[in-house]
Design a protein that fits this description.
Blueprint lengths: L1 E7 L4 H10 L6 E7 L6 E5 L2 E5 L2 E10 L4 H12 L8 E6 L17
Antiparallel strand pairs: 1-5, 1-6, 2-5, 3-4
Family: Belongs to the P(II) protein family.
Protein name: Nitrogen regulatory protein P-II
GO molecular function: ATP binding; enzyme regulator activity
Amino acid sequence: MKLIIATIKPFKLEEVREALTEIGVRGMMVTEIKGFGSQSGHTEIYRGAEYAVNFVPKIKLEIVVSAAMADQVIEAITATARTGKIGDGKIFVLDVEQAVRVRTGETNADAI
């Protein structure tokens, strides 16, 4: 099993969710986060005063899938989240040693 952690722009969430549902992803966790990468934030003007925005709003997706499905999930996220502009996000893939469904006690592949 693989844990896929992806950060994307907030307005891309619904499009990415639809793409993942179409390829068979049955669940994901979504968190609103703030962060920065190579863009290192930006400046904005509010009521005539300029100020630095060091952290940019992002969405973090956490998805656990079978190892065989991981490449397909990465492809779907990349294709739908890409705008071609700086700040499109990142994807990280980690191994998952064990999964347990709390309600039924099912483990590993049966739990996802």
